[in-house]
Amino acid sequence: MGVELDPVRYEMFRHRLFQILEEGRVAMQSVSGSPVVVEGGECMSSFYDADGTVILTAAGLLLHCTGCQEAIQRAIAWYERDPGIHDGDQFFFNDPYIAATHVYDMLVVKPIFHQGRRIAWTAAMMHTADTGGVLRGGHQEIFHEGIRIPGLKVVEQGRVRPDVFRALTAQCRDPDYVGLDLKARIAANNVCARHYLRLVERYGVEFVEAAGEKIIADSERMARARLRGLPDGTWRARVYAFAHPRGRRTPFRVVCTMTKRGEELSFDFTGTSPQNADSANCTLSCSWSSLFVALAGHLFWDVPWNGGMVAPVRLHIPEGTVLNCTFPAACSQGPAIGGTLYSAAHACIARMLYAGGRLGDVNAAWDRVYGGEYRRLGGHNQHGGVVAQQIYDFFGGGLGAAPFRDGVHTGGHMLNPQARISDVELIEMNYPLLFLCRNQAPDSGGAGKHQGGMGMARIMMVYGTRDLTDNRWPPYGLPGGWGLFGGYPCTVWEQRMFRTEHLPERFRQGEYPTSVDELGPSWGEPFPPDTPTGRLPVPEYTLLVDRAEASGGSGYGDPLDRDPVSVAADLRDGLVSRGLAEGIYGVIVEPEAGALDPQATRARRDAIRAERLREACPLPGRTPGTIAPSPAVGGTDPRAQSDRAPAATADAAGEAQAGTPAPGRRIHESLEVVTLDGTAVIRCLRCRHPFGPATENYKRRALRRVRDLYGVGFRSLGSERPDPPAFFQEYLCPGCGTLLQVDVWCPALDDEEPVWDIQVEAP
Question: Dihedral of the CA atoms 252, 254, 255, 261 (nearest 10)?
Fold first, then answer.
C-alpha cells in the first residue's frame, strides 16, 4: 500500500462505502417481490478487491457475508480466459458446495472496471424460496434440490442475456418471483458499481484501492487486539438436533472445541455426527458462513466485517460430518444445521468473554437457533395465484439474557442484525391466511437470574383455497439454544393444527381465539401429523397454531437468584405462568391480590434448594469437591453448607493454614479460579466450596441431577416429543446448591460424561 492516506478522508471514504452497500441492499428490497427479502430482509450487498477478498459488507443476514468471496475467486479461476470477464458482466451462482449455504441462497457477482482494468467486485445475495426441486422433506441428494449453478454469465457487457434469464426462471414453479429476485440482484450490483466508480472519480483509483486494503488490514489488527485482551484457554459446547432420513427420526450432535492462544483462535468440530441421509447437512462453505455469524455478532461486533476479521481464525471440521458433508449429499437445510454450529461457537465465545471481563458482550443463546419447524406453504392462494413461499416471523425471537439484564422480548435473531417480521396485511393480501393473533408467547424465554426474552406466538386460519400444503421441515423437538451459568435453554417450538368445520359460524357469533392458550378441543380436532416431515394438505378453515414460532432467548444464572419483584411483575404481565413462577423461580404471589408473599417465597426457595441437593448425586467414582491431598480444603460435609452468602465457612480454616489465596479469575457467574498452595483451584464464589484443580472438569466434582426434558413443569410440550429421549443435566454446587449449568443430554449419542465447558488457568 504505497499511497499515504489522510485519516479524515479515509474515514469519510469508509463510511461512504458502507452507505453505498446499504443503498444496494435497499435496491434489492425495492425490486424483489419476495416476502423473504422485502419483509424478512434476507439479502446482502458487499464489495471485494480485484482478487475477491471481501472489503466490506452490508448484510440483512450475517450468514451471507462470506459466501460471495469464494464465488468470485472461482469465477476468476474458471472464467478469466474463457468466456472472459469483461466490464459490465455479471455471474450467477447458487452452488452450496462453492459459495452459498443452500441452493435457495442465490448470488450475482459483478466486476468493477476502471479504464479497462478490474479494480474491484461487488456482489448481491438473497434467498429465493423456489428452485424447482423436489418438495422439501424428500431430498436425499443435492440433485433433488433444484437448479444448482456453479457460475453462469447472466449479464454480458451490461446486457441481460435473455436465454440465461429464461433458462433459470423456467425451472421454477413461480417464475415471476424468481425473475424479480434475479433482477433485484442485478440492480443492486449496478447501483453499487456506479457509486463505487464515483468514489474513484472523487478520490482517485490509487486512493480507493489503498483504502480498501487498509480496511481489511484494520479489521485484522482490531480482531487480533481483541483476542490478545482475552485469556488463553479452551472452551467446549455440545448442541443436539434431529434429522429425518427416510422418515426415521435420527438425533445428531455438534461438538465444538474452541482454543484461544495469544492472538489466534481455533474451532475444532471433531466429534460431530456423520452426515445425514436426508437434507439435514451443511457444506463447508455454509459452516464458514455460520461461524462468521457467531464471530461478527458477539466477538468482533465492532470490527468491520471483511476478510481481515477472520484472518486470526482457524476452522477444522472433519469431512463427511453433518457440518462438512461430501458431494452429492443433500443440504437444503444447511442454514438450519449451520445454526447448531453458531450456537455451539457462541456458547464458547460467551464463556471466553466472561473470563476476559467483557461482561457487556456476554449473552446467552438468542432465539432457538433453528430448533423448530417452519411453515413453508405451497399451492394456490385465494386469488388463484401460486404460493411457494414462507412467512418470515421467526426473526422476531427473544434475545438471550446477559449478566446485567433480561433478554429483549421479540427483539431479533442472531442471523439478522436488521431483522424485520412479516407485515400481517401483506400476508393476508397474498396468502390464503387470516391472522387471529400474533403476540408474545408466555414462558418461552429461558428461566434464569436474568430471563431470556419472550418469543412469538400466532394463530392463522386457512381460507379461500382448497389447494394448500404445509411443510414440516426438521430439526425440531429439542432446545436449540443453551442457558448460561445455570440459566435454562429457551423452549422448543410447539406446532399444532386444528381441523374444524364450524369456524365461520363461530366467527359470525363473535367467537375467535386471541391467544394460543385459549385453544382446546372445542376449536376442532387438534393434531400433529402422523409423519414428522414432508408436505401435508391443509383443508380450508384449518387453524395453524404456533407457540414460540420465533422462540425465546435463553436464561442467565440460577433462577433462584432472580429478583422476586421481577417475577411477580412478569406474572402480572402474562409473560410467565404461575407454574413457572412457583416451580422454577420459587416465587409465591397471592392469587387474588397479586401481591408478592416474601415469607412464602423464602420458604419455597429454601425447599427447592434442599430438593436439588436431595435429588442430585455425585458423578460415578467422584467425591464432590475434594482436592486430595490438600490442607487448603476444609473437612466439613459440603452438603451441610446452605448459606447463600459468599462468605467463607469451611474453607476459612484451610485458608488460614495455607495463607491468603492469590487473586483469582472469575470464569463463571458463580465460580472463580484461585491459586492455593501453588495449585490453581476452582471454587464457588458464594460458599467457597472447592471443585478441585483447574486442570480438571469442575462438573465432575459437582452434584448432578438428571431430569426429563419435558418433566420441568414450565416447558412447553413440542409437537413431537424427542424419541430417542433427551434430558437435562443440572450441575449443582455441593456446598450451597447453586445451579451452575443446565446441559441437554441425549443418551442415544453420548454417555454421561459431562461436557468440559470451561478450561482456564489462574491469571
Answer: 170
| Length of the chain, in residues | 763
Q: Name the residue with cell 393444527.
A: 497
Q: How far is CA 658 from the centre of its chain?
A: 46
Q: Residue 469: is it exposed, middle or buried by C-beta count within 10 angstroms (0-12/13-18/19+)?
A: middle
Q: Are 98 and 73 in contact (CB under 8 A)?
A: no
Q: Which of 105, 416, 146 is nearest to 282 (CA)?
A: 105
Mean pLDDT is lowest, of 67-76, 356-365, 516-525, 647-656, for 647-656
Q: Are 470 and 330 in contact, with CB atoms under 8 Å apart?
A: no
* Each residue's pLDDT tens digit, 12-21: 999 999 999 9
Amino acid at 400: G
- Burial annotation 147-170 (CB, 10 A radius, 16+ → b, else e): bbbbbbbbbeeeeeeeebbeebbe
Cell of 169: 426462471
Give the helix/strand (H/E) hosting 343. helix 334-355
- Packing angle, helices 7-31 and 175-203, rounded to 10: 160
In the chain, % of residues over pLDDT 90: 59
User: Cβ-count burial of 316 within 10 angstroms (0-12 exposed, 13-18 middle, 19+ buried)?
Assistant: exposed
CA 123-128-130 angle, 5° bins = 145
Range with the poorest average pLDDT among 75-79, 123-127, 353-357, 715-719 = 715-719
> In this structure, is the dihedral angle defined by the CA atoms of residues 431, 434, 437 and 442, taken in order, positive or negative?
negative
DSSP 396: S
Amino acid (one-letter) located at 373: E
User: Which residues on adjacent β-strands are paired with residue 239?
Assistant: 254
Contacts of 6 (CB under 8 A, 6+ apart): none
Cell of 104: 435457495
CA distance 60 to 40: 8
CA-based nearest residue to 126, from 20, 38, 22: 38
**pLDDT tens digits, 608-641:** 999 999 999 998 876 665 443 333 333 333 333 3
Signed CA dihedral, 659, 660, 664, 670: sign only? positive
Least confident stretch, 179-193, 502-516, 561-575 = 502-516
pTM: 0.91
- Tally of CB atoms within 10 A around 654: 20
What's residue 718's pLDDT?
A: 43
For 216, counting Cβ atoms within 10 Å of its Cβ (0-12 exposed, 13-18 middle, 19+ buried), the class is buried
Q: Residue 224 has what DSSP assignment?
A: H
**Does residue 483 contact residue 346 with C-beta atoms inside 8 Å?**
no
Geometric angle at alpha carbon 655, from 652 and 660, rounded to 5°: 120
Point out which residues pair with 673 in neighbouring strands.
665, 682
Residue 197's nearest CA partner among 47, 405, 95, 415 is: 47
Report the b/e string of 386-400 with b at 16+ CB within 10 A.
bbbbbbbbbbbbbbb
pLDDT tens digits for 636-668? 333 333 334 333 333 333 343 344 555 789 999
User: Whole-angstrom Cα distance, residue 635 to residue 632?
Assistant: 10
- Positive or negative, the CA dihedral 78, 84, 86, 90 is negative
